[in-house]
Amino acid sequence: MAAPAPAPAPGGDAIKDLLFFIGLIFGLMFLWYFMGGRENRDPNEKPFLEDPTGTTIGKQNGSSYQNKISLSAPYDGRKSNAREEYVVIESFSNNDSKVNVTGWSLQNKKGEVATIGQSAEIPYPDQQNTLGNVYLSPGEKIFVNTGPSPVGPSFRVNECVGYFNERVPFYPKLTENCPSPTSSEIYPAYIENSCIDFMKKNIKKCKTTSAVSDLSVQCAEYLTSKTSYQGCVNDHKNNSNFFQKEWRVFLNKGSEMWNDDSDTILLKDSKGKTVDSINI
What we know:
The chain is of the alpha+beta class. It contains four helices and 15 strands.
């Protein structure tokens, strides 16, 4: 009678399974390396963002505007006064189209949300303004202040808004790059030479100027019409460089949005998808 076959060594099947698994891993690694591996990954791609609770947000939950629009707080974002508190949203200069950011929102670590509303293309203080969506073109930026607008609406910056600095402080200060009212050599016939001389010596960019008593009424009226925001807009709104690469948007909050100690700020698109985040 033949002797029974020896029983297989305990754990033999488990060892074979382990060897098969290790071989499969090495095979996948070889295939990944053969197909280019890390060299195929976009070096500018952000693999994830963080929400205020520290949870990672993968690309499947992120916005299609990731790596196209950025969020920053140049001064670190923390101010106890809502008027002084601001962050910056910027469109990358290599983007191929403008982006409608109206309806986008900013969220702090506590989950409080503020939405970006409409703005005035050309703002007019103390008047009813026509509002439209904010379209951020490549290379443009938005300064988003937590507090209310000093002139009424949010607005697109133009080369005349430097006059607004005479009204109340802006944070950051508006650039004073207004065209000079004396840059033209053509003056109305009723403007006397003494008025022209006065303007050339006394007018400063983006500053309202009043005539002195020894100049004519016509001179005073001319100065008022030229050295003012309204006069500047009337004369230069058709200039090719009238609009600047900047917007000022105001969230109209009465108190600060970002915590003085530390905070995490999320920028979300109109679908609620995260575009960018920063820790301050």
